[in-house]
Design brief:
Layout lengths: L1 H27 L20 E8 L3 H14 L4 E4 L1 H4 L3 H9 L3 E4 L23 H19 L5 E3 L6 E2 L6 E2 L1 H7 L2 E3 L20 E2 L5 H13 L3 E6 L1 E3 L5 E3 H12 L5 E3 L2 H15 L1
Parallel strand pairs: 1-2, 1-9, 1-12, 2-3, 4-7, 8-9, 10-11
Antiparallel strand pairs: 5-6
Bound molecules: zinc ion.
Length: 283
């Protein structure tokens, strides 16, 4: 009897040691757990994938047309805004905050490459990291002043992540990583793999000028791989260039909310926070 108890204790000790050693080895190899089904990344409540809806530039149609639609659908989204644009519909943006939408930072003056004529005099090629840091901090301060919220997420204007030219080019991703939970790109060709994605360079999938079926295909493809789609739109109205179609958006909201499809619909910050926590506890 005594021997049996001793044997059980020894077995338990050996199992514990193996578990500790196994965990240590797992920690030395990045993402080793991603191949282990027992510790694979899991979305909450058995969901297959995550989807965020985001809109850039604080275009007035997001307030004039979008807010009512989103309220009707009981859907929360992420708006990446510039303060100057927010002032055009300040009461509307305050309502967006009150409705529970996330407000993200989209810089102060929206610098992009000089190849876009609208950015010729505000070109990333002429920027330094110091100037970009001022943009990021200035925008956060203005947004906080206008709307009383501090953005936790950022969207790269035009999806571009550099300053300077040629040998002097520098990435400003580290500035974003220092300040924000997420830096979201634009016109990227893939959804985010939660095992490995860099939240400071999260991929953004455009859903402007799409039919509902095209949006659904993007979601289904991501769901088959357990990924996170961050949709990016601009205007909300009748389908067209840089316009997310109202009917398609409404159909997408209904599709995403249907429990039968197993999708977690959340703001960019909500889903990124979950990914961060999962990695901290599992990897
Ligand atoms: Zn933009």
């Amino acid at each position: 009897m005594r021997n049996r108890v001793l044997g059980t204790n020894m077995l338990a000790t050996v199992a514990t040691v193996l578990l500790i050693v196994g965990t240590a080895i797992g920690r030395q190899v990045p993402n080793a757990d991603s191949t282990n089904p027992a510790k694979r990344f899991r979305w909450p409540n058995g969901r297959r994938a995550a989807v965020s809806l985001s809109f850039d530039d604080a275009r007035v149609s997001q307030i004039d047309t979008g807010l009512a639609l989103l309220k009707r659908q009981l859907v929360k989204v992420t708006f990446f805004v510039q303060a100057e644009q927010v002032r055009k519909r300040l009461d509307g943006w305050k309502k967006a905050v009150a409705d529970g939408h996330e407000i993200g930072n989209h810089s102060n003056t929206h610098p992009c490459t000089a190849n876009y004529s609208f950015s010729r005099l505000n070109a990333l090629e002429d920027y330094t990291l110091e100037m970009m840091a001022t943009q990021l901090d200035g925008a956060n301060a203005e947004i906080q002043d206008l709307l009383g919220v501090k953005p936790r997420t950022f969207a790269y204007p035009c999806g571009q992540k550099f300053v300077g030219r040629g040998l002097d080019v520098r990435s400003y991703v580290p500035l974003v990583a220092e300040r924000f939970l997420v830096g979201r790109g634009y016109l990227d060709e893939s959804a985010n793999d939660p095992h490995v994605c860099d939240l400071a360079q999260a991929m953004g999938t455009s859903f402007d000028d799409m039919e509902f079926e095209q949006m659904r295909n993007q979601v289904e493809q991501a769901a088959n791989e357990g990924r996170w789609v961050i949709f990016v739109g601009h205007e909300i109205g009748k389908r067209g260039y840089q316009v997310t179609d109202t009917a398609a958006l409404e159909a997408l909201c209904e599709y995403l909310k249907d429990p039968a499809h197993g999708i977690w619909l959340g703001t960019v910050a909500e889903i990124a926070e979950y990914i961060r926590q999962q990695r901290t506890s599992n990897f």
